[in-house]
Every structure is written in structure tokens, then in C-alpha cells.
Amino acid sequence: MQKLKYLTILFLVFNFQMVFSQSIEINGRIISESNIENIHVINKTKQLFTTSNKEGNFTINVSLNDTLQFSSIQHKTRLVTINELIIANKNILVNLEAQVNELDEVLVGKILTGDLMSDIKNVEGNPPINFYDLGIPGYTGKIATQSERRLSEAGEFKPKMLVGILLGGGSLDPIINGLSGRTKMLKNRVEIETKEGLMQSIKARLGKDFLASNPLEDNEVADFFYFCTDDANFIKHCKNQTDFQILIFLRMKYRQYQENKRVPQD
What we know:
Blueprint: H1 2-21, E1 24-31, E2 40-43, E3 48-51, E4 57-62, E5 67-72, E6 75-81, H2 84-89, E7 91-95, H3 116-122, H4 131-134, H5 146-154, H6 161-166, H7 173-180, H8 182-213, H9 221-229, H10 234-238, H11 243-262
Parallel strand pairs: 1-7
Antiparallel strand pairs: 1-4, 2-3, 2-5, 5-6
Helix pairs in contact: 5-8, 8-9
């Protein structure tokens, strides 16, 4: 009798694992205050890819414990792990947080003619005084973005800071920002802005030539380049690299993109 009980338990556990290890198609819906069309939905476990329609709906194949990544230029990236409830309901509702892209102030002035001497004569007002005029050292490096400045101000906690805090001379901000998740949020924002800027630069510089030999439908072009930025090695392969190296990376992602399109979605 005891043996039969154990066999029954093993049978039920085996069936449970069989059911939840199978790949099934689920229906999903994305909600957000921003545009919910063409949201990238990637099954990072199975390397499957799809996008949402204008109502925010999508379908994708998943198994238990698969990781889905939701991303777009207008939203913060979100990862969702497929659990038993999602498998049982074959349905998922995902709320995405809008990504606020703050623009620097734009100054509109007189239109320049291209004639240097003429343009200088047309400039009104006195030139601003800079640190060279005053004979003092100044910063001439890359100007930090607003997100980079905020990340720098938030600080990053390091164990040696505890000594200064205990002695009454350190700041608690790095610890508070670390515990609250603000530092992590700012790091993610800086990474998103870096990827977006790099992607736009590559698209403007190499996009036309690349698409001439690697054709895509008009509605797939933006989707493809965002697909490239979702690659974990995008920065490594494209930042401070030659055009030839970048084109090799784009070609590799192009093959992956075409393979994902051929994956049956039924």
C-alpha cells in the first residue's frame, strides 16, 4: 500500500512536469500611458521574437520559467518570468512604464550664411567670458547628459564609505539611493540613452548601405535596429568600433531577425 502511494505521487509529479515543460502559445496584452504598438517581445530563453499590435496584443510560445523581455524606445525595459499561473491561463497582462526622454533647451538664433566673416559681423552682443579668458583651468571633455549627471549625484555605495559615515564625515545618499533602487534605475536610464544614441548614429551613417544589400520592409527597418540594441553585446560590438566591424554585427543580427520571423506563431 505504501509503495502504491509513492508510485502515485511520482506519477502526478511526472505529469505535472510534463505539462509545464511543454511549449505553449500564450496571448498577451500590454498596457501603458505611451504608444503600445510595435513593443518588442522577446523570449530570451527560446530566442523567439514578436511585436505587439496597435491594441497592445501579441502571441508568443513559452514554457515554464522562460524569461520574456519587453522593450521599446518609449518604455523602460521589463523582464517577466513565466510562472504556473500564466501557463494555466495561457494569458499575460504586462504594464510598461513610460521612458521619459528629456530634451535639452534649444536656442533659436539667426541663420548663418556660411561666410565666416559675414556671420561674425552679424552676431549681436558680447561674447561670453570663459575660463580661458580668466586664465583658470576648465573642463574640455564630453558634456554629461542629464541622466549621467543625476547618476553621478546619486553616488554609488562602496564598503569603505562606512568608515567615513561612522566618523560622521560621510554622506548617506549613496546608501539610500542604492537601497531605494534609484541608483539602479539611473544606471538603466543611462544605458538606454547610450544605446539609443549609438543606434541612431549607426542607422544614419550605415543604414542606407546596409539595407541596400540586406533588404527589409519599410515597417521592419526601425524594428530591426531596435532588435539590434536589445542584444546584450550591442555596446561591445558597436561602440568605438570600425564601420566594418559594426556591419559584421548588423549582418549577424539580420540573420537572427529573419530566422525569428520564420518561427511559426501558431
